[in-house]
From TrEMBL:
InterPro entries: NUDIX_hydrolase-like_dom_sf, NUDIX_hydrolase_dom, WH-like_DNA-bd_sf, WH_DNA-bd_sf, WHD_NrtR. This is NUDIX domain-containing protein. Gene3D superfamilies: Nucleoside Triphosphate Pyrophosphohydrolase, Winged helix-like DNA-binding domain superfamily/Winged helix DNA-binding domain. The lineage of its organism: Bacteria, Pseudomonadati, Bacteroidota, Flavobacteriia, Flavobacteriales. Residues 21-160 form the Nudix hydrolase domain. It comes from Flavobacterium chilense.
């Protein structure tokens, strides 16, 4: 069915089900093949790409709505989720529906609450729903054209993630359970978009006391096998709440 037909058929029900003028947009980051990725989708009959999003039900908390939207799109609830900004410029979304009836739910003015999420690549199941024709991970260095103001939403989410890296731990939801120190450093460098001194990084990350060194190493390669680590989840969660001192 055509995208326009789907929206027109569901508009009346949306007026009854959701809170008017309020929406949610999610920037879902992951780390794969030494690249920071963001989840994107293409709506049916549209050329541009967008971010996963949706609306808040009248009997639903805003954070619960974000969790529901993420689960619908990724098939998992075990994702780090953080509200980061509110987007409310004039015609940020309604201009995309100029050829639609004025009473269409989607054509109304919406203020959008932005959330960013961190997800482990291997645990995400990409879901193509009735509104979309594609749902794909894209490298942040090779993004497609975005619809509406979704490029600005993505850029603000990435800036927030980089700022958070200065005072909170990152990695538990982006790396596999066991990882090497070079892999963790590479993740930080890609997010921050700059090289970090190896010795300084090792000393600082170990001083945070959020890692557990394992009695095993990564096999393979010509050089000495690097030691494997995993996050101490209890200490990691404390650091998320209380913060870390210093910056990268």
């Amino acid at each position: 069915m055509e995208f326009k037909k789907i929206l027109e058929q569901q508009s009346e029900a949306a007026w009854k089900k959701y809170i008017p003028t309020l929406s949610i947009d999610c920037v879902i980051f992951s780390f794969h093949e030494t690249s920071l990725q963001v989840l994107t989708l293409k709506m049916k009959d549209q050329e541009s790409w967008g971010l996963p999003g949706g609306y808040v039900q009248k009997d639903e908390n805003v954070d619960d709505a974000a969790i529901r939207i993420l689960k619908d799109r990724t098939g998992t609830e075990n994702i780090y989720l953080q509200q980061f900004y509110t987007f409310g410029n004039l015609k940020r979304s309604e201009s995309a529906f100029e050829d639609y009836p004025d009473d269409l739910w989607n054509k109304q003015r919406f203020v959008s609450i932005g959330y960013y999420a961190l997800a482990e690549y291997s645990k995400v199941n990409l879901v193509i729903d009735e509104y979309s024709s594609a749902c794909e991970w894209k490298s942040i260095d090779d993004l497609p054209p975005f619809m509406m103001d979704h490029k600005a939403i993505f850029e603000k989410a990435l800036l927030t993630l980089r700022e958070q890296l200065n005072n909170h731990p990152i990695g538990y939801n982006l790396l596999p359970e066991k990882f090497t120190m070079p892999e963790l450093q590479k993740l930080y460098e890609i997010i921050l978009d700059k090289k970090l001194n190896r010795g300084n990084f090792y000393r600082k990350i170990l001083r945070y006391d959020i890692l557990t060194k394992l009695d095993e190493s990564r096999k393979g390669g010509a050089h000495k096998a690097p030691d494997l680590y995993r996050f101490d989840v209890e200490k990691y969660n404390i650091a998320l709440k209380e913060g870390l001192k210093g910056s990268w």
